[in-house]
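Bit of a strange request maybe. I'm writing a small parser for structure token strings and I need a real example to test against, not something I typed by hand. Could someone generate the tokens for this chain?
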Amino acid sequence: MRSYFTCLILLLLAHLSWAQEMTLKGKITDSKTSEPLSGVSIKLPGSGNSTVTNASGEFQISISDGYENVVVSLEGYQSQKIFLGGTTNLNVSLKKGKAEEATSVGFGSQSKTEMTSSVSSIETNDVSPSPLINLEQANQGKTTGMFVQNSSGKLGEGTTVRIRGGSSLSASNQPLYVIDGVPLTSGNQSNINPANIAKIEILKDASAGAMYGARAANGVILITTKSGGSGKMKIDADYQFGISQTPKKLDLYSPEEYNQQVIEYTLRSLSLDQFVTKERLEQWEASGDRTINLPNGSAVTLPSFYDSLNYNTDWQDEVFRKAYSHRANLSLQGGTEKLGYFASMSYTTQEGILIGNKYDRLNGSLSLDSKISSKLSANLNLNYFYSKDFRLKEDQDLGAPLQAIVLPPSDGYNADNNYQLIVRSLEYNPLTEVNFSDNLGFNNSLVGNLGLKYDFTDELTFDINGGMDFNDARQEIRQGPETRDGALTGRSQLGEQNLKNYIFNGWFTYTPELSDNHKVSVMLGASYQESNTTSSYRVANINSVSQLEGLDENNPSLTIVDIPGQASRFASTFGRFNYTLMDKYIVQVSGRMDGSSKFGPDNRYGFFPAVSTGWNISNESFMESVSPVSFLKLKASYGLVGNTPQDDFLYRSNYYNIRYGNRDGIRLSNLANPNLKWETTAQMDIGLDFAFLSDRISGSVDYYKKTTTDLLFPVPVSQTSGFASVLKNVGSMENKGFEFNLSTVNVETGDFSWTTDFNISFNQNKVTDLQGSNLIVGVNAFLEGESAGVFYMRKYVGVDNVTGEALYDNGLGGTTSDWESAPRQIVGNPNPDYYGGFTNSFRFKNFELSALFQFVGGADLYYETGEFLANSGILNLGQLATQADRWYAPGDDAEYPVLDPFQENTFPSTRWLQDGSYVRMKTLTLTYNLPSDMVAGWGMQYMSIYVGGTNLLTFTDYTGYDPDVSYFDPLDGVVGQNISRGIDNFTAPQPKIFMGGIKIGL
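Reply from user aminoacidic:
Good idea to test on real output. This should exercise your parser:
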């Protein structure tokens, strides 16, 4: 009997052991392609136990006997709650669904059905491969509401990004960039390796940006980099080679035409205009003589420099070049059930199309995801880059390579084949400037965060993370005595800037399981951020060729400027409440309280609330019979977001140290305004998301209106203060418009597919109030009732066929040749009326073809380069070939006025204002994926070969190099600076790039 009970107990214990250790195994695949899906979440509700599938789509998880349900989910696929019924083997096919795509919204994510805000997404495959090393350039034209312009075609230059129009006149209009939860202050988002990006979310309205409160007025761009995987190690490698060239050459004078100008200029400067005709100029030039015999029997001797013009130097060929680039990426991804990892390394070296310009960059990244226990998980993200930039002078500075196009066709070399100064050129030679000067920029940057998540229950979680954004920048400049700015013995400069930015976030998320009809989510958190920037600048004349020789304190010409670091701090609390009724009606309320040390004690805090609602119309019973509609949702939002000055502590007077020679001193950097406060932007948005025919057609349309009050604006002050202006809150500005995007699956068969993506955005900008502080800067104006930065200048109406003088509108219905007396008028707008992009993607068997056309309409550009190239002054004569159709003698019906030695005919006017609209083939890529069975025999998972290009075609009426221009002319003495816009002042064009590459996976 005893042995019987012993056996029975052992059997019961064995059964109990089996019940506690039962393992559920299975595989998750795509329902359409049958391909395995990695990263699928397998969750046991109520237990806190979960896992993810490996690279083969397989999983295993321990469950208790009698456990009934498991939830299978993956972003972009329809989630499934499955009844097990005692099975231990589970194979599931997931269907894709746009409504299930998860979108990051700041401190959480939401599916498309839950979303009540305006958010655009760019997926990984939309970012790479691309020959562009700049993240913003790679996304130009790919989504609604985000307008991207390039400041220059030189390497290492920045871009201008506007989300739903600019919200400020002097504070920053750039969006807030958040990389893996870390808000950037260094501005180094352009240096993130595009191949490491998993997805990009653009938060456009106040409801979406509410979690970033005081910094969300210009929108928020969330960048999520690739994270750890599961299963065996996956190795991806990519090599790309590119060739760049200038997209076009300007039509400039031939040497013969230029020499005719010299003769004409000489005669007109001697008041011998009556002898000038086009035919005589051609005859005199053809003779090659420096002595010109006039019809009245007298003679004129041309200047001595005329002999040096008998060359055929094409300065565009001298400064532009064919440039080469190389980029290599290597990444590793894999992991176990407890630890996933992703690591990558990338190296880029790229030559610019202008001589002397080069950019080298090294990127490294590491991501770890750890499941420490059933309740505790951790993640680590690190992104590092180092760059070395061989810089050029600013495009607008004399001595910059592109300034060479104003030079006469003289030889750049003397008889000894050495560089020589170019006559009539302000005494410089662009070849000398490049070869006898160094301008090196160095950047070291590290962005990272460490996060922990603790699941108290399935309903309550707590997240905490700490992030950092470190950047060390250094610029070394040496100009030899041969250069224009190199002094008699040479000149050396050193600039250094160190930035340290720390942020700490913590938040609770509560999602109680109420019932199928009621869903609630509550999030509460707090944040603290501290940034500290120190900078210094040294400049001295030197007597050595060493790069930084002479910057020691014993040099009597040494000037030192030291700006000590001061910590700028943000302290915030935030919260969000979501309620969904019957998966049909959604309400979201959110808010953030921000405190900033940038403002004085009386204006230090601001509260930024938002509310939004959504109605999932497609979930209504009356829509069940409308089978073509797969998704339809109406949404609306309203909220407040803020903006701060670019500089810190402007509410008080600030000083910095300066040393000249052996003397120390301090200098006032700004006038104090203790009443400075936040710019506040109130934004309303209403939109409709839709999908038809099982998501074969999908898209959205949004209308928005945002009004910014308490504009930070540089108000002029008395010159006796030593400053031109002081920053004040003086006005308001409005942006309104609508956005539309459409995605279609036109054809989808086994061997062939064709998809189309189209987006277009319209925006109207208006300054509604400046409290009488209208501002005119150059050819731009900031006027109440007008768009910011409208072109405000004299209106050019043609040529007087008797005198050859330029004629201007006199404002009274007539004309005048007196430029000074002609009134300024509002004549154009640098802000675009609309912009967007159009992408077609094709797949035929193993071939893929993708083409993106990007367009901008309604933006005017001031062609200041043309103004200089038509110059008829004593230093440089004109170069534009079109100026050959100028007035020579009375009765001429000419397009352009007479060559005027006193330059009055080339003063700023609408003669140089042009339509900057364009359509551009932004990218074209053809990819061939080698057959999988072939590469498997080589030990590879895949191999792809691709060719393509960027900026291959541009259709525009603009006559300059490139209509994609965002040059902002700095306004000296104005706090905020960079106020003029839409001006092309010798801006280097974006290069035309041809590229090819190979990608492999192991």
